[in-house]
Amino acid sequence: MFQRLPLETQTLYAELLEHLLGVQATRSIGLLPGTFTRKVVKGERYVYYQASLPGGKTRQFYLGRSSTTLDRLAQRFEQDRATLAEDKGRTRRLVAQLRAGGATIADAPSARVIAGLTEAGLFDAGSVLVGTHAFAVLGNLLGVRWATGSLRTQDVDVGADERDIDVAVSDEPVDVPAVIESLEMGFLPVPSLDPKNPATSFKVRGQALRVDLLCPKRGTSDAPVFIPRWNAAAHPLEFLEYLLRGPEKGVLLGGDGTLVNVPSPARFALHKLVVSQRRPAAFAAKARKDIAQAIEVLEVLLTDRPGDVPVALEAFEGQGARHKKAMSKALAALKKARPDIAKQVKPGR
After folding, report:
1. pLDDT tens sequence across 45-93
2. C-alpha distances in angstroms, 176 versus 121, 170, 228?
3. Is residue 93 assigned to a domain?
4. pLDDT above 90: percentage of residues in the chain
5. Measuring CA to CA, how many Å separate 143 from each of 10, 54, 216, 225, 272?
6. How far apart are the first and last CA of the chain?
7. N vs C: which end of the chain shows fewer Cβ within 10 Å?
8. Is residue 176 part of a domain?
9. Pairing of strands 155-159, 210-216
10. Is 57 inside a domain boundary?
11. Which structural domain, as residue segments, surrounds residue 327?
């Protein structure tokens, strides 16, 4: 169901991931969306910083009279911008090589949305890309190309758990609705079935492109949950907290390479199995897609990283009787679809 990527392509992907992690670790003022500008008023020179704001607007911030300190700051800014341009050029070359080498490339609209969220700091703040775009990233990360049928989507799914934010991540909020609006792609909030509830999705009218915000479901309520660091509401999803723990860094390929957080492959596969059995009958096609993606990931892991699966299984079942029951039903569905794989999915002890 999957194809191994050439060793050269796998090496290029590892190089790109390392490169982007290095760029992230050495972030500087050159990343700020704006530029220094100067004005002469009554014979005196003044320095401003002109910043780009969501929605395509600009604003000038007064910094002070021109001075040696401000001139040095502006000079450093230009130097950092030049370095960043070199980094971006290298990123684009690597992405082009990966495209030629058979790596999975995201569609342009989805890649643009995810890049915008990344640049705004969404993944720095602990959010995780889930769903089919995460599946695509995991394929490149594991060195394989998935069956094309399981990759057809323009849904961008992002999850976060406000109660389980790592102390090491950025505590800067990201105004998700403002970021989406700033892309100027025609996104509109999708009205909730209950008009009293806020929207948890944004969609481009007449197109398949959609952004869904998700959070773990606690209790029995399906009501949207407001996520303060997003300034937006999210749809609660069962067992999502399991998927969001221990994410890995990966690169979404499309245009430029975009650094994102994705679930660990084993947790992704097991979560897909569980979710497939909890979908209503009207969503049978999505359930089949969930199982197909889970099977592909498990096939790779049981060959290349067999220890990951029992650890992930124990982590899920260890959360209580309700989780064990859900996993038992999921593994029964896997046994029906692929008994050869199902008999290998078991706790390590």
Report:
1. 888 878 765 555 677 777 778 888 778 877 777 777 777 777 788 899 9
2. 10, 15, 10
3. no
4. 60
5. 5, 37, 30, 36, 20
6. 30
7. C
8. yes
9. parallel
10. no
11. 105-342
